[in-house]
Amino acid sequence: MLSLIAALLVSGSVIAVGFRVAQEMAATRKEEMRRRMEQLMNLFATGLTAAADDPRALLVWQPFAVIGRKVFPDEFNALDQASGGRFPFTKDYLESAHARWSADWLTWEQRHDSDYKLKAAEAENQITASGAPATLVRARLDAIEREKLELYQRRYSEYVQVSKALQALMK
Questions:
Q1: Distance separating alpha carbons of residues 77 and 86, to the nearest angstrom
Q2: I want to staple 87 with a disulfide (CB 3.0 to 4.6 A). Which of 33, 47, 79, 155 is the partner?
Q3: Looking at the 3D structure of the chain, how many domains does it have?
Q4: In terms of domains, do 136 and 102 share one?
Q5: Per residue in 14-37, pLDDT tens?
Q6: Do 71 and 100 belong together in one domain?
Q7: Which domain range does residue 68 map to?
Q8: Would the pTM count as exceeding 0.85?
Q9: Does residue 29 contact residue 15 with C-beta atoms inside 8 Å?
Q10: Is the bond preceding residue 88 a cis peptide, omega within 30 degrees?
Q11: What span, in angstroms and rounded, lies between the C-alpha atoms of 2 and 4?
Q12: Per-residue model confidence as pLDDT tens digits over 48-99
């Protein structure tokens, strides 16, 4: 009878210790997950800041977020729930970045046109005032127009490429 009581006490102690070890392991896992989530938030805060300054930064940061989701799915799911969207770049954030990119393009396009109109007018005025022949005026204005067009085409190509890439991120 005494050995039965001793066996029950030992069994109870083993169960209690096992339960306590399981609690400690769960707490450790939870703390590690919280720490990883904090690191992810800090990391992607940099990406959000960069993208706020220049939407092209999303083309660098979004692939890291995709990789992060594969490596830390539980952490990203928890961050999604906490943030109320797809962490770190929600669809609304991506759409807003695309809109900013388009607005920046339109601003650049207007400034570019104004700058080159002014440049052409100044060149024409300087050459005419110097008494140079009309052919020189025409040649200088043609050169300015070519420069304007070349710069516009390079910038427009970049605009289209980035715009398409940002749209692809929204899918």
A1: 8
A2: 79
A3: 2
A4: yes
A5: 676 676 766 777 667 888 989 999
A6: no
A7: 2-89
A8: no
A9: no
A10: yes
A11: 5
A12: 999 999 999 999 999 999 999 999 999 999 999 999 899 999 999 999 999 9
